[in-house]
Structures are given as structure tokens and as C-alpha cells.
Amino acid sequence: MRVLAESALEEAEWAKQRYEQLNLIDKKRLIALCHGQCYQQKMTRAFNARVRHCEFNPGDLVLRKVFHITPDSRGKFAYKYDGPFVVRETFFGGAIILSDMDGTENALPVNADVFKKYYP
Questions:
Q1: Domain 61-117 has CATH 2.30.30
Q2: Which among 96, 120, 118, 117 is positioned nearest to 108, based on CA atoms?
Q3: Which of 35, 59, 84, 111 is most buried by a 10 A CB count?
Q4: Would you state the pLDDT for residue 32?
Q5: How is the chain split into domains, by residue range?
């Protein structure tokens, strides 16, 4: 009310200007939202263009990444990958069932993110 008294505007004219300002804020908010979505789509496309998709087929040899949950006495000289293993079956979501080189099959599927191809 103090602003209204200082500006010497009529109440109806002040309400009209205020309403126009609120509409302008909504428009700017929508523009900012659209800009943010466009930016995210552009970043997603740029990232996905550089992703190397790795597909595994039954019979391929792979190495499995070792997660050092327990401390290893070798420290930084410990092996980073374990294997090689043979891919027995692949699933749609990126899960793989492995078997050892001697033919014993692991029952649980493992995510394909922890594997890389092995070339003897």
C-alpha cells in the first residue's frame, strides 16, 4: 500500500499493472523452463554420441572387474580384472550369465557394465 500511495496511481490502474507484471513473470518462467529442457536434450545427445556400446554374444571371452571390498595385501598392484570367462547367455537389460573356462556355470546373472572383452 505504501508503494501505491507513493506512486499516486489509482488502485485499478495499479492492479492492472501488477497483473501485467505477473503475466510477464509467468512468460519468462516458461521461457526459462523451455531453455532448460532444450539444454538437457542437447547435453544428452552430446553424451550419447560418445558412448561406446559393447555387445556380448554367447561364446565371447570377457574379463570381470574386481571390486576390492576387502583390503588386499598387494595394494595398488592388485589385479583390476579377473578371468577370462565365457559368456553363456545374454539378456535384454544388459545382464550376462557366465561360465568359467572349464565349463562350470555361474547361476546368477551379472550386469554387463563390469565386463570388458578379452582378446587372447
A1: yes
A2: 96
A3: 84
A4: 92
A5: 2-50, 61-117
Beta bridge partners of 117: 62
> How many Å separate Cα 32 from the centre of its chain?
23
Cell of 96: 550376462
Q: What are phi and psi of 106, to 5 degrees?
A: -85, 135
For residue 115, which amino acid is it?
F
> Cβ neighbours of residue 59 under 8 Å, at least 6 residues apart?
86, 87
- Cα–Cα distance measured from residue 63 to residue 85, given in angstroms and rounded to the nearest whole number: 6
pLDDT tens for each residue of 23-70: 888 888 889 999 999 999 999 999 989 877 778 889 889 998 887 666
| Amino acid making up residue 78 | A
